[in-house]
Every structure is written in structure tokens, then in C-alpha cells.
Amino acid sequence: MRRMIFVPILIMVAILAIAGGVGYWLLNNYQFYNTDDAQVNGHILNVSSPQAGQLKTMTAKLGDKVTAGEVLGTITVAPTVAGVKPATIDITSPIDGTVVQANAIEGQSVTPGASLAQVADMAHLNVMAYIDESAINDVKVNQDVDVTIDAFSGTAYKGHVQNIVSATAGSFSLLPSSDNASGNFTKVAQRIPVVISLDSNGSNNIVPGMSAEVKIHLH
Fold it and tell me: What transmembrane ranges does the database entry give (predicted)?
């Protein structure tokens, strides 16, 4: 008798557990959009020579904090008139930031526009997340976002949706994603890039290129 009563109770508990799990999943998907298809981005600019010449000095080193206009090196420009001494021109940082690349070698020849170093604005990093097109209508500018950086998984960062790019990620590909020359088209789910600004970078050394996970608060 007890066994006959116990079995229906177990079945009822199992049904309630399943219903609770399904309900939680539905509620979570209604309230949030989660994706790990995201990456830290930053404003990175090249440090280049304004003229052709020879790199005389290069003081910028990887990881250096620099300010806009700060001299990072000098180049020697050969004179165009005989008897005139070579001119020295300063190479300066285009922005406040951190040197993230410095591969130039003193003594090498340089050309106008050639990259000698790169400086990133670490104070204004953002996260680029790729959202399924089926969910993009629920994503709005200024929605709150919880961000986790893979390298610092124990730390949660707060942010908000800054911009929704008006094109799919596939639109930026150098190669075509499909060939419909024959008149056939294969439908492929697309992703929309969404820019998420971080309210604070915290004390961790977040750098562009790091992988991230985001949870967008939809409702």
C-alpha cells in the first residue's frame, strides 16, 4: 500500500521538477540574452612617420603609458639641398593610451604612414557581441549588460548596450558567404554586431582581443 502511494508522489515530484526547469528556462530567456560570442575591443591607432627617413630613436616600449603628443621617437630626414644638415623630426603619440605594439628598430628606414608602434585607449574599452538575428528585435540601446571576461572569470563587469550595428557580421567578410550565381540561395542564420560599453574596467588588465561572455537584460 505504501509503495502504491509512494510511486505517484515520485511521479508528481518529477513532473514538478521538469515544469520548474522549463519555467526557469523560459523566464531566463525572456529576461536575458546570453552569448559567449563576444570580444573586447578598443580604439587602437598606429604611430607612424610623417616623412621618409631613418629611425634615429624609439623610446616607446610595450606597455608604456603615453599621452597625446608625447614624443615616442625621432627620425632623420635626408636633406633635399646639398650642404644642408639632415633634419630631425619627432614621432608622437596620436592619443592618450598604452603602447600595445612596438616593433620598430632604431636605424631602420621608414616610409610615410608605415606603422612603427600602436597605441590603444585602455580607458574606453568596449565589448563587441554578436547577437542572433532572431533575437535582435529585443535588444535596445542603453539596456543593462553583465559582462564576464574569460581571463578574469571571477569578476563581473557592468555595462550597457551602446550601439547596434546596422549590418550583419557576414557583411564585413572579405569573402562571399554564399554563391547564388546559379539562382539557388541557402538560408543561413545571421548575427548582428552589438557594441557594449563597459561602465568600469576595474583593476584588472583588460586588453583588446580578450574573449568575453555577456548577459543582456531584455526586460
Answer: 7-27
